[in-house]
Known about the structure:
Elements (H helix, E strand, L loop, with lengths): L1 E6 L15 E6 L3 E2 L3 E3 L5 E5 L13 H10 L3 E5 L10 E6 L4 E11 L4 E9 L5 E12 L4 E9 L3 E12 L4 E8 L4 E10 L5 E10 L4 E10 L5 E10 L4 E10 L7 E10 L5 E10 L5 E9 L3 H9 L4 H17 L5 H21 L1
Parallel strand pairs: 3-8, 6-8, 7-9, 8-10, 9-11, 10-12, 11-13, 12-14, 13-15, 14-16, 15-17, 16-18, 17-19, 18-20, 19-21
Antiparallel strand pairs: 1-2, 4-7, 5-6
Amino acid sequence: MEKNLSVNVLPSPTFRWLKMNSVNVKVPAKTKEANPMVTRPRSVAASAVSYSEISEIPGGMGYDMDTFIRDSGVDVLKLSSKEGEHVAMPVSIDYDFSEGANEISAVEIDAADDSELTVIMDFRTAKSAKGFAAVQTNVRLGKNAKVLLVQIQRVGDHFLFLNDIGSVTGDSARFEQIELMLSGEKAYQGSRTDLVGAKSSLKTDIGYLVKGAEHLDMNYIANHIGKKTECAIDVHGVLRDQAFKLFRGTIDLRRGAQGAVGNEMEDVLLMSDDTVNQTIPVILCDEEDVEGNHGATIGRIDESLLFYLESRGLTKDQVYEMMASARIDSVVNKIPDKSTRDKIFLHLKDHIDETYSAE
């Protein structure tokens, strides 16, 4: 028995024939609650709450995903920081999905006024694992609060994974997210941030590596609601083999958001002629005193640069691998936790070794 969800809904629909306004995903009707390993300092409280506590924070994947998580009946893992406390040790939430997994999880991060908190979420399976998992993370930032959310996706070659984020900011709050999508047969990623508080900000860094016949579908939304809010969405990706990727990025500068600034940039390296790359950057504006910018660099390595590096003794394959690694590494290096960086670099090394051994 399956359900059909319409997810990653574009806030402002484009031409229907492009088939980019949303995507339909079939998910299992019956699921069980995931049981991640949580490591936290004592200063961060953990509790189980009902979904009603976070229902007013919509996620980036849309109404169907919110409803799916709510109707599953899973408890929400709530992590709370104390007012004024800067938590130095990251909170780690490790998901190790097993073969045949069919699991759902919901997490709430509640950052009190003037507090700082880092949360690292690692989603992984065995390389050959088959299964399904859906995770929704909601973030609530109080006045002057700062939250860094790091998410690492490295699930199996036959795994269906849905990952959704919703956040809302108070005055002068800052939400930073680092998202790494490194594997998964079919992966769907959504994120929505409502910059409600005046002078609040969003910084999003995304790195993705899509290979083989993998399918990655993303929807990122930044809603500028408060005055003088800022967002910066930077995306670095690599596509190889017969991979498919769709990125939707929306900056909505709403009425009343005077002085708001929104920036979005995507840099994509295509390593094969058989890849499919789709990007739809959107800027919506209902206010005069605002600034919105977007851009994209998509394609193969410049021929003159390739010739120069080959003349220095590198092969064409080595040049492409070096450039691909540089794009992902630039995102990984933003993670402040060294053990997490090392874990990702080891995963990427295994990927490169596997690629060349297959050849």
